[in-house]
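Quick one, T. Sequence first:
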Amino acid sequence: MKFVGIRRVFSTLNEEQYTTIGMFWDEMSELYGRENLMGLGCNWGKDSIEYVMALKSGNIADANYEIDLPDEWISVSGTKEIV
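Structure tokens:
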């Protein structure tokens, strides 16, 4: 499965990504409608994360990123202790 969309890189310093990715969602929602979008965070590094926005159906005309995703996923669950 190919995930094709618009890619941006966001800083993870001081947890900035939560605000800036939210702003990215708002921006893309104005163009395509929030209900038509899906997002993918990937390549999380020490100071940044890549985030890609795509349409649930079809492709964004000016898409600048393509990533291969598996056709089948494995579900994992557990607990996380917050320190």
